[in-house]
Amino acid sequence: MASYFTPFGTITGFTANTTYYICVYATNSAGTVYGNQVVFTTPSVLIGQSYQGGSVAYILQPGDSGYVAGQTHGIIIAPSDQSTSAHWGNIPTAIGLNANIGSGKANTVKIINYMTANPAYQPSPYAASICASLNLNGILTEACWNTTASLTYQPYSFSKTLAEKKAWEMAGAQSKWDLVTINPSLVMGPMLNAKGTTSESLHILQQLGDGTMKMGVPAMGIGVVDVRDVANAHYLAGFTPEAAGRYITSAHNTNFLEMAQVLQEKYGC
């Protein structure tokens, strides 16, 4: 007796984070036979899905570097080609590039550092520089730098930018150590010395409570992060071999008005 089976192909169009029940059946002149029911839940992010301004290209699997059981991590690519004429650059193998999953950021940092220290070999534009400056959908990422501050406008922010750029210049001029930078938003949390602190972050809290802003608290948007999370980020940056480049450390988007309302609820009169 001959048996013929035509596969139904690939099922597409699934919705993320949804449980599906699938049962295959076959029908002929003798009737209909049903197979076993298969139940599965799609991950929270799917390949091909638009995400954070780009598209999900790969989801990490067990055995991949960076894979964490029960969590979804992967690779996001730009939704379109960023250049058709950029050079790869004259890059020596000695700077230690590799093709492992998750090494792209580290490779980009090494190439940028090499090109910065060796401008004679630097084509314009080149692939790593395009990747380093890519800003998808207006989302602030580690590729963004403060380009508006100056000596006369936000000099504090300007000093931070100059200091980090100098650090990257120093890192690119040698090969004995790698540089990883942590860029936190407004840092809040417990103080080591409550009576002798000079923290500008805590000075903002004082202004919300001592009457400095009694004429009106601006609803100016700002990110906030716990000082203990920032400390942990520094520790991980120093002891994680895969760590490379710049890392924004921010946990919550808020504004000064919202912060004042939270404080008023507990301490206000």
Which features would summarize this protein structure in a list?
269 residues; alpha/beta; 3-stranded antiparallel beta sheet; 3-stranded mixed beta sheet; 27% helix; extended
Provide structural commentary.
- The chain has 269 residues and is an alpha/beta fold.
- The chain has a domain at 180-269.
- It has 6 helices and 10 strands.
- The strands form 4 sheets. Strands 3-4-5 form a 3-stranded antiparallel β-sheet, with no helix packed on it.
- Helix 1 (104-117) packs across helix 3 (155-172).
Show the helix and strand layout:
Layout: E1 19-28, E2 31-41, E3 50-51, E4 54-59, E5 74-77, H1 104-117, H2 127-132, H3 155-172, E6 180-184, E7 186-188, H4 200-209, E8 221-226, H5 227-239, E9 245-249, E10 252-255, H6 256-267
Parallel strand pairs: 6-9, 7-8
Antiparallel strand pairs: 1-2, 3-4, 4-5, 8-10
Report the span from N to C terminus: 88 Å
As laid out across the biggest beta sheet, the strand order is: 3-4-5
Helical residue percent band: 25-40%
Question: Would you tell me the overall average pLDDT?
Answer: 82
Q: How many individual helices?
A: 6
- Outline the low-pLDDT stretches: 1-5
Number of strands: 10
Structural class: alpha/beta
Order of helical and strand elements: EEEEEHHHEEHEHEEH
User: What about the largest sheet?
Assistant: 3 strands, antiparallel
Tell me what portion of residues adopts beta-strand conformation. Answer: 15-25%
Overall radius of gyration: 26 Å
Shape: extended
